Each structure stands twice: as C-alpha cells, then as structure tokens.
Amino acid sequence: MARGALLVAALLCAPLACSAAGTDPDGFKRPLEQLRFNPALGQREFERSSLATLNVYDPWESWNRRIYHFNYRFDEWVFLPVVRTYRRVAPRFVRSGIGNFFANLGDVSNLLNSVLQLKGKRSLDITARLLFNTIFGVGGLWDPASRMGLHRQSEDFGQTLGYYGVPGGPYLMLPILGPSNLRDAGGLVTDFFSAYQINYLDFAKTSSDQPELLILRGVDARYGADFRYGQLNSPFEYEQIRFVYSRARDLQIAE
Amino acid sequence: MPRSSRFVSLLVGLFLCTGAAAGDIDAASYGFPLQNPFEATIATTPPELRPDLPDDDDIVQRDYSLRLRPERTFTLPGNFWPVKELHYRLARQAGTAPLIFIISGTGASYSNGKTEYLKRLFYGAGYHVVQLSSPTSYDFMAAASRTATPGISQDDAQDLYRVMQAVREQHADLPVSEYYLTGYSLGALDAAFVSRLDETARRFDFKRVLLINPPVNLYTAVRALDRLVQTDVSGITNSRSFYELILGKLTRYFQQRGYISLDDALLYDLQQSGERLSNEEMAMLIGSVFRFSVADIAFTSDLLNQRGLITPTGYPMDEGTPLEPFFARALLCNFQCYLEEQLVPLWRARNGGGNLEQLVRRISLYDLQDYLSRSRKIAVMHNADDLTLGPGDIGFLRRTFGDRLTLYPSGGHCGNLNYRVNGRAMVEFFRG
Predict the structure, then answer these.
(1) Cα–Cα distance between A158 and A155 in angstroms, integer?
(2) Domain-embedded: residue B282
(3) Is residue B6 less than 8 Å (CB to CB) from chain A?
C-alpha cells in the first residue's frame, strides 16, 4: 500500500520537479513561455515605434545624403588611413597623452557651458578636473581626475541652447564633421570662437599660427571616435544615424 | 522497502530533469551570472567575467575586399557603392599557423561585436583569423550572393565557400597549417552546410568545425523571433511608443547616475537599477533588432532582383535619393513575410513546386542529420534557454551529436559567448 502510494507520488513528482524549473525532458527551458504576449494577435507596436523614428525634420535631405556619402568616402580614403598611420608611428602612451591633452582643452568649453546652464555641482566637478589635470597631469597629458572619480562630462553650446528650449531645427550633415542640426552647428561655431577668446594654455593662438596642431586635433578626434561609416551595415544607415543623433542629443540635453 | 523506492523515484526525477548526455553543464559549476535569457542575450557577460583578450593594437589585421560579382558594378544603384565589393577582415600571425574562418550571425557584418570577440579569442590562441559577413548581411547579398535571396542554406553555403576560396587565393602567400571553421547563430547553420560541401569539394578539409547556438529548425527560429515583438509591454500609450518608453528609462537612469557612459557594463548596471527593463521590454528590443535585419534583407533582396515588392521596378536611385518610403515599407515585413513573399516563390520556381514544410526541412539542420551524426569533427555548443529553439530541438541535437553537444544551462541566445568558461571551451575544442 505504502509502496503503491510512493510510486504514484514518484510518478507525479518527477514531472513536477522538472516543470518547477520549467524544463522539458531534453533540457529545453522554453524561454518564450515566461513572456506575457499581447492577447490581441498581430499588434503593430514595433511598426508604429519604428516608423516614428523616420520622423526627423530633414528638409535638406537630398543634399545631406550626398554629404553623407562624401563623408563615407573621405573616411575610407583619407581619415582612416591617416588614423592607421598615426596608430603605427605614435606609441600608445603618446596617443593617450595627446587624447588627454585635447580632452583637457575641451573641458574649458564644458565648464563654460555647464556654468551657462547654471549646473552648480557639475561646474565644480569640471573645475576640479581642469585643475587636477592641468597641474598634476602636466598640462593635461595625464588624466588623474578620472581616476579620482571625476568623470568627463561633455557640455557644448548646442546643449546649452537646447537646455533653454531652442529646438534642433533642420537636420544637417556637416562635411567631415558628420551628423548635426542647425542649432548644434551654430553651437559648434560659438564654442570654437569662445575657445579662441579664452585661449587656454595658449593653444588657440598657437594653433592659428601652426595649423598642423588643428590637424592633429582632428586625427585625435577620429582616433578616439569609435564610429565607422558602414558599421551599421544597413542600406538605411543614413536614417538610423539621423534618428540616433537626434535622440542622443535629446538625452544629453536632458541629462 | 519504501525507502528504496523513494530512492528510485529520486533517481527517476534526476534522470528526467538533467537528461543523460555527457555534455550537459550543470548550473552550479557553470557560474554564469545571468539566469534570465533575455538579459543574457542583450547584456552578455559582465566585463569582469570575460576572458583576457589581445588588444586591437597587438593584432596584425586589415580589411580586404573581393570583386566577386563584377556585373553588379553596373546594375547596383549609386547609393550601394560601398558594397559593390565584398569586404572581410584578416588577422595574421607572424609565421605558419592554423587558419579559422568565422561566419557571422543573422544580418551581421564581419566587423560586428561578436565576430570581433571571436577573432580576438582565436587570434590570442594562435590562429590566423578570417571574419566573414553573414549571407543575410546586405553587403554579402549585394557583393557575393548569386541570388541575393538568402535563406536557402545550400546556396548560401556555396556562396560562402566561393568567398572562402577567393580569400585563400588573395593571400596565397599566407602560411597555413590547417583549416578550421566556426559560426554563431545563423552563421553556425551556414558553417554546418559549408562543412558538408567541403567534404566533396575538399578545398580546405576542415579539421574541426564548431557550431555555436545554431537554429535547429529555421522556421521555428524565425517564428520565435517574429513573436518577440508581440509581447505585452505595459506603459505604451498613444503618445508614448515603445522606443520612447525605453529611452525614457535610459534618460532617468543617466540622470540618477549623473553622467552618461555607453560602455560594456551599461545594460548590466541598468538591470541592477530602479529603471530595470522587464522581460517583455527586453524581448521586444531583441525582436526589434531582428526586425531591422529583416527590413534590410527584404529591401535589398527585392531591389537586387527587381521584384517590385518594396521598391518599384526600375525606380531611379542615386546617392541623394530619399529612402524613407522604402524603409517604411520594408519595416512592415517580418521574417514570415520575407519567407512567403520572396524566398518560397524563388525556391518553388527553381524546384518546380514544393511547399513551405519541404523547404524548411531542406534548409534546417535536419537535412544534415546523417552527416552530422557520423562526422566526429563537428561539435555544437548551445544553451538550454536559447530563444531561437523550440520544443524538441535540443532532443534532436542530443540524438544527432551525442557527446559532441555541450549544453549550457543559461546564456540566452549567444549571451554567454564571451563568458570565460565558454571561451576556454571553444579554444580547447579546436586544440583537440
């Protein structure tokens, strides 16, 4: 009697023990069964969301697309070969030193725009970064501030304008510089001239006499940017970059 | 007596739960931290549990290109100029070494993250490495595929095989001791078909072949992927679409953290925070990524074959042509739609009929069962919670591969590829 009951228990138990883990006899865990599906078949949420991503104001599209293709070629034929050479001739510590140096220069405009947006804590952080990196990092060649937990926070004039509610305006593909919009392109020009006026570490004035410094800055920027044209591997890369750019800017402005 | 039968019942329970094959890894000793298959698929392994890999600066590598379909130079529209030649990446060792081909997964190009990871892993283990795009990737479709309608595994394998031979010819001076082959996801299915092709063509005579997370039944896999965007995500309203919802979470997360950083640990950290994504949201994200791949495939295949389903036949196109209308139309097409509208008609035309079921049997792993069960050089690694599998698929793998199947208890779809334990197992398999 007891034996029979146990046998029944065993028979009942074995599959139970298995289904407790949600596992088939062959070991399959049926992951999709954990999900709650929309009971109305064929919901179109993916389509609705994705079609909305195409909704970026782009009145100069045809022109922008040509610039996109120009940039793609420029990248393949000029920029990337130069970066490859840079990688080969400059040892790693030189490259990281150069990267840190330009990042430190960039912190000046980060600070300026952070102050313009009345972000107190962030302005103090960036000031501390500038001081530590310029003094202990020997003019910015090292980045001791990041090791101390003061992360680099980028702010530019486009973000400042966005912070005060200026809309992005038409999407704009800039030659060589890449995706932008009217507001951010204007911000770029402003940042450039304010850096020239501030002339931190005498870089802006020196580089106007020695344009190769500006080229180095460009090479460093390309070296540091982890983006390749064609990387999204889609015939619709232009649309995808456009959406990601506009949303990334919204995110940066909100943050 | 009751005690012994209790013991028997326990044994029966254990047997049913864990299965009998030798290749099962139990969860306790495995130690992969993500038990949630969706989280694993998106976030992959936390950075500190990944293997040590050589740095990019320490790898001698370059991208090369092949002109395989010269006629396409004239037929492809101007905005396809970057994919008129097929690009691939070769990382070479200093001296004689074995060479491994890596075939990428659905819609992925040779430079995508997972292929890059495998390159580093095998390069660090002393192999020359060739990274290839998936036959479903738009560059491959445009520059290397004869039909530009990927999905018929035999055809895709022939295209791949031709590419591999061309790669070998382009680097005839490269001292290679022997050849190996691997692929992940759809690339694993391709690798299996390429391996069989090589048994007769004998150009490479692959010494070992590793299939990582292959779909078993291609139709089960694509239906599962199509279904992922059907989850019921709470919080979607008329004014807030799914992406807005996810971006909102990301924005709040960055605001709490105080700074933006898009690093490897982002998704892992996000899941530890108050803004963590639900299973339904993650499933829809994964499904969306695949849907974007299908949109590329459907658009490219239609355009190259001038089928007129998405782009009107003979539509003039150059570098300035806006593509939104076609992108929008392609986004409406899921795997099922691509299958029904483009793949099946092509297959039927070439075979003088046949139905979907017959096609699915032909292009899935079933077609290779005999070959796979007796070919000792081929092994498979899979996960018990892989999203592309259906009921019975693991049973098929067990019957076919026996002890050459390694089944990990977690990892989702390819999420544990870059886990230290998996990395070691892959390298060891090829070392023999």
Answers:
(1) 8
(2) yes
(3) yes
Is A235–B288 a contact, with Cβ atoms under 8 angstroms apart?
no
**B198, B298: one domain:** no
Closest to A235 (Cβ–Cβ): which among B228, B261, B299? B299
Pick from A8, A12, A50 the residue to mutate for testing the B interface (most B CBs within 10 Å): A50
Between B18 and B431, the more confident residue is B431
Which residue, among B284, B324, B398, would best test binding to A if mutated, counting the most A CBs under 10 Å from its CB? Answer: B324
Q: How many residues does chain A have?
A: 255
Q: Which of B37, B232, B254 sits opposite A36 (nearest CB)?
A: B232
Neighbours of A149 (CB within 10 A): 7
Residue B97 lies in a domain: yes
Closest chain A C-alpha to B326 CA, distance in angstroms: 9
* Cβ-based neighbours of B223, under 8 Å, separated by 6 or more: B335, B336
Contacts of A25 in chain B (CB under 8 A): 16, 19, 395
Residue A236 pLDDT more than 50?
yes
Nearest-by-Cβ selection for A37 from B231, B244, B393: B231
Among B308, B330, B350, which residue terminates a domain? B350
Summary mean pLDDT of chain B: 92
**Among A18-22, A132-136, B52-56, where is mean pLDDT lowest?**
A18-22
Q: Do B227 and A32 touch (CB under 8 A)?
A: yes
Say yes or no: B43 and B157 in one domain: yes
With CA atoms as reference, report the closest residue to A119 among A81, A150, A155, A169. A155
Nearest CA to A104 out of A80, A137, A76 is that of: A137
Choose one of B309, B332, B350: the last residue of a domain.
Answer: B350
A66·B319 Cβ contact <8 A: yes
| Residue of A236, A243, A247 to mutate, testing the B interface (most B Cβ within 10 Å of its Cβ) | A236
Question: What φ, ψ does residue A239 adopt, rounded to 5°?
Answer: -65, -40
B176-184 and B208-212: which strand pairing? parallel
- B232/A38 Cβ within 8 A: yes
Asked whether the beta carbons of B143 and B72 are under 8 A apart, the reply is yes
Residues B184 and B327 in one domain: no
Residue matched to tokens 């079609």: A51
Q: Are residues B266 and B143 in the same domain?
A: no
Structure tokens at B220: 């089960």
Q: What is the pTM of this model?
A: 0.89
What phi-psi label fits residue B403: left (phi over 0), alpha (psi between -120 and 50 degrees) or beta?
A: alpha
Residues B94 and B209 in one domain: yes
Contact B412, B39 (CB under 8 A): yes
On whether ipTM exceeds 0.90, the answer is: no
Report how far apart, in Å, the C-alpha atoms of B401 and of each of B200, B211, B244, B369 are. Answer: 21, 11, 45, 9
The reported pLDDT for the residue numbered A1 is: 41
Domain range holding B396? 27-218+355-431
Residue B75: which of B303, B271, B294, B236 has the closest Cα?
B303
Interface of B with A in 191-230 (CB under 8 A): 224, 227-230
Whether residue B85 is found in the same domain as residue B160: yes
Q: In this complex, do A62 and B82 lie within 8 Å of one another by their Cβ atoms?
A: no
Instruction: Please list every residue in chain B whose beta carbon sits closer than 8 Å to the beta carbon of residue A69.
Output: 79, 81, 319
Q: Is A228 on the interface with B (CB under 8 A)?
A: yes
- Within a domain: B18: no
| Domain range annotation of chain A | 59-254
Element (H, E) at A206: helix A203-209
B87 and B235 share one domain: no
Residue B3 within any structural domain of the chain: no
